[in-house]
Amino acid sequence: MKLDRIDRKILDILQRDGRIANADLAEQVGLSASACLRRMRALEEAGVISKYVALLDQRKIGKRMDVFVEISLVGQSNEVLEAFEKAAARSNEIMECFLMAGDADYMLRVAAADPVDFERIHREELARLPGVARMKSLFAIRPIVRKTSFHLGPE
Fold it and tell me: Cα–Cα distance between 79 and 76 in angstroms, integer?
């Protein structure tokens, strides 16, 4: 789907406030409410908008630590990769999982309350992931930049 200036403006506003009323959104982008709603539906149907969520403050819910975990697997067969990816997707503790190029096969981001909580996550979740040959945990001191919206270019 080719995004025009109005689509980008709609997406920019929705990334900042997913609960904005359609009438307010339409006014901000210079469309009628019905035209704005049609555009939003088209963006949803095309998969540009995949879902609407509430973003929680990680610290306020007691998850003060970000831990990045490099995972190296025992092999690179489809079976090993698929088993690991399915197990990682089922985990409630893994916030993000990326297939990597380089030394590690995967990079995970885990949110933990404290080192004791991370130890629990390590023992109960990470150590049980299939096909893991090696894990290396990196503890973040504090986030500097954490964005949830994409820059969509000039309007």
Answer: 8
Listed residue (121, 137, 11) closest to 63, CA to CA: 121
Please work out, in degrees rounded to the nearest 5, the angle formed at the alpha carbon of residue 12 by the alpha carbons of 15 and 147. Answer: 50
Q: Which domain holds residue 84?
A: 59-139
- The H or E element spanning position 35 is helix 33-45
Would you say 153 and 104 are in contact if contact means Cβ atoms under 8 Å apart? no
Q: Is residue 104 part of a domain?
A: yes
Written as six digits, the tokens of 6 are: 């109005």
Q: What is the pLDDT of residues 50-78, one digit of tens each?
A: 999 999 999 999 999 999 999 999 999 99
Q: Which two tokens stand for residue 138?
A: 């990196």
Q: Please report the sign of the dihedral spanned by the C-alpha atoms of residue 62, residue 115, residue 67, residue 79.
A: negative
Q: Exposure string (b/e) for 17-28, b if CB count within 10 Å is 16 or more?
A: eeeeeeeebbee
CATH number at residue 76: 3.30.70.920
CA–CA distance, 112 with 87 (Å, rounded to integer) = 19
What pTM was computed for the model? 0.88
- Cβ–Cβ contacts within 10 Å for residue 40, how many? 19
